[in-house]
């Protein structure tokens, strides 16, 4: 029989994202300014770094999702991976914010190696963590509540790292920012490991997920590798066009997308009996409309939030001229975010999840756009509009990850197959890709104004770019997301019908009430 989740289990699960966000939000908010102003990379080199590393995520996230789906241990499918990857995540968190004495070329190589290591460790940890939500409970309402606790935890972790990092860097570094960043990460890495252990041992995997394949994992990965070019080549062409923005890269992008569409059409027309499990998983995803729309939403909302977070340190340090306000602004945003995440379950009951998602996108985008018109020096106006926008922005990822579970349910209801890990890995992938593209866009825009963090004379000419990145540029992605989500086919009523049907198939009495 379906049971309500205990408060302790919800809190335990939420602490896992508090741990993950010590990495995620620390990198999102400070890694760009660390690379340009402390580590010594140019804006162009750092932008390329963000884009190239996100390409590797296209492979690792999907592979990790497949491996997790095929894992079977006494602890379950997902928790063993969280447990095993946690020490490596803490290690690369420290290494990524360390500045060795290696020379210009050596520093660039070190940045690539450590950032790839950080994203790989995060993948092995966070793909199973995200998928864990899909097997803790079958009740979509409890899943929304669990997602609220998850993102309350996420914002709490973000509050710690984003609010306290500048003060801790100053305290530990004593004027040496490179030393300050490294010692600060020692503290956060220790906390990360502690919180992740609590998550592993306070949660339980309840939803049975059959392994619908008799083929060895090695063969499944070989089959998958035949189709990876359908993901990587289009993504590479998008990345090249995004970075170079010229006629050649645009022509290549159009040609690649056209050829990819032809291959996808052939794959979808292939008889199911000829497909391996991994091939059928891909077909299932490509024909899962709720999942496809959520994939687009994950990217757009991450661009929306990632651009804002990526430019805040620059904005207050140079545009406002009050570097000390960076930590206080982050603290205000994340306190508001916790309330937004916790309010999501109640608001979704009142308005419905699809309308709430659209309302949140529009409201947050409007408040963000209004920052453009705030007079220079009006910090009260910036704090007020920023916090108002953040309340609604906090609702977006909370709904996104709970609705990914709905798309897994929809796929099982429609096909009889369930690839929870793969579905959540794709969600994690577009979030990280969006974050990478957001960070790169911040650096590209600043670079277009001639910004060089090691040359103070270039700061003044780049101030308009900082203002735009704080206001209308991210707002465009929010408005685009609202338009896209109008196409989302599931509402709360038909999702409830899907859930009840699946419970009957599994022989579990339904306790879901309208």
From TrEMBL:
Domain of life of the source: Bacteria
UniProt entry keywords in alphabetical sequence: Cell membrane, Membrane, Transmembrane, Transmembrane helix, Transport
Membrane topology label: Multi-pass membrane protein
Residues spanning the membrane: 39-60, 81-100, 112-136, 148-171, 183-203, 224-244, 250-269, 290-316, 328-348, 355-374, 380-401, 422-449, 469-488
Gene3D superfamilies membership: MFS general substrate transporter like domains
Alphabetized PROSITE patterns for the sequence: NA_GALACTOSIDE_SYMP, SUGAR_TRANSPORT_1
One annotated Gene Ontology cellular component of this protein: plasma membrane
Any single GO BP term: sodium ion transport
Membrane in keyword set: yes
Compartment list: Cell membrane
GO molecular function, a single term: symporter activity
A Pfam family reported for this protein in Swiss-Prot or TrEMBL: MFS_2
Keyword Membrane: yes
Membership in a protein family: Belongs to the sodium:galactoside symporter (TC 2.A.2) family.
Name used for this protein in its record: MFS transporter
